[in-house]
Design brief:
- The protein has about 80 residues and is an all-alpha fold.
- Helix content is about 60%, strand content about 0%.
- It has four helices and no strands.
- The chain has helices at about 10-20, 25-35, 40-50, 60-70.
- Helix 1 (about 10-20) runs antiparallel to helix 4.
- The longest helix has 13 residues, at about 60-70.
- The radius of gyration is 12 Å and the shape is globular.
- The chain starts with 9 loop residues before the first helix and ends with a helix.
Amino acid sequence: MTSTEPDPHAELFTALCVELGFCLHEKGEDRVIQALSQGLDAATRAVFAAEGMDYLTASGDLRRAVRDCLKANLPA
């Protein structure tokens, strides 16, 4: 992708940051993008890993909110 092309995942990461406070760095975003090919659950775990949070000890509501945010903002 060249710098003139829009990032297809920009809205997804903006929503994660604004709505849930998961403002990922570039490497974290890359991890989530790679995990998306394995499904939403893998991408959700990647979000928590990128933030340095333990997925298993996070509340079910927070895990669900991250997954729902990813699903709602996937690029077309």
